[in-house]
Every structure is written in structure tokens, then in C-alpha cells.
Amino acid sequence: MMRMGDSVPRKIIRLFMERGFAYRVVRGRAYGVMRNKFGWAAPIPSEDRRVLEQVIFEHYRNDLHIKTVLFVGCDSYTAHYQRRYFAAHNYWTIDPDATRRRFGAKQHVIARLETLGQYFPTGFFDLIICNGVYGWGLNSVEDCDAAMSQCHSCLADAGHMLLGWNDVPDRDPAPLSGVRNLSRFSEYLFPAFGASRYLTDTPNRHTYNFYRKLNCGHVGGK
Predict the structure, then answer these.
(1) Which of 89, 98, 116, 143 would staple 150 via disulfide (CB 3.0–4.6 Å)?
(2) pLDDT-based confidence at 168, cuts 50/70/90?
(3) Residue 118 three-state SS
(4) Neighbours of 206 (CB within 10 A)
(5) Quick one: DSSP state of residue 35?
(6) Measured between alpha carbons, how far is 34 from 86 in angstroms, rounded to an integer?
(7) How far apart are CA 199 and CA 143, in angstroms?
(8) Are 170 and 202 in contact (CB under 8 A)?
């Protein structure tokens, strides 16, 4: 709340401090420098990442049926995922950019998701996390369809897949309904949300879609 006698600049500063804006701006700038200038591991302090790391990861890593995990796409803000969230799992990463290797898991493959089956046998993974790749590398219907086909093949029966994407026109390369091989998965009602799709409160409308590889084709939980 503004106080009588404050100058305009002081009022603005007080307003920013009271609402936490200054802290968030400085924190965001610091993380940006760490990531972009120095290439250090630096988590992103955003709502969609909070949901991913504190809600979604917590659920999956406590599921005793999930032992082998693939995380698709690596960057400075994912470098801590193995150590912090999946240290007890058989954790793999994949990214076609060789320079991202330093941000990947100890077990890392330099390749595109569309070629996953060249590196892993059928039914190898219990969980595939494909977040921020649809529209950021998978940029056509053909790419998306090929990637989903490979994920379905390399996922174990009853295995899980998470698809995280930005529901905005410039990052929506193809309607998900048009990705034919995605229909081979069943929707999964994620317990924390009670739905198979969750839209985060973010400007880029980051959305999480939850799937399972089930032969029966019904919507369900575990």
C-alpha cells in the first residue's frame, strides 16, 4: 500500500517490493544470465515448471511401477532433473543437439525422437516425458506422427507418456487430433488434476496432456 509523503519513484519501488515484482524480475534476470551467457544449470522459476517439477514429477517418481524414464530435450534448466527427481530410476535423456549433452543424463542419446527405436528395444521405457518439444523441434504433422509412433513402440504396456506443449498458434504445429499415432494412446486421468489435460496459468498457455499405452483404449487411472 502506498504511504502519504512518498515520492513517486519511492511509491513505485515500494509497490514493486510489496507485490514481490522486484524479486521475481531480479531472479528471472539472474537465471537468464546463468542459462544463456554462461550455460550453467539453472531451473526456470515459472508456474508451468513448478507444476511439472513439484506436482507431476513427484507423482511419477513415487509410482513403484515406473523404473525406466526417458526425458526428451535437454537444456540448462533440465540439468538437475536426474539428481533431484530421478536419481533412483534408470533415467535417460535424448536430444539431437550435441552441445546439449552436458545438460543431459549420464545415459544420453544424441538423436531425434523420431529415431528412438534405433537406440531402444520395444517396451523399454515405463515413462516418456516429452515437454516443450512439440512446436520446438517437432514442427510438422509428419514429425509429430513419427515421434509418437516411436514413443508408442518403445513404451512398455501400461507405460505413461507426458506431452507438454504451448497452446498458442505459433507453437501449435498441428492439431493433436491430427497426429494419427497419438490416438494409439489412451488418455490418463492424472490424480492431482482429475483430468487428462491440465492448462497452467501462464501467458504461453503451457498445457500438459497425460497418456498411457493401454490395449483397451479406455480413459482411466492406474
Answers:
(1) 116
(2) confident
(3) helix
(4) 24
(5) I
(6) 23
(7) 24
(8) no
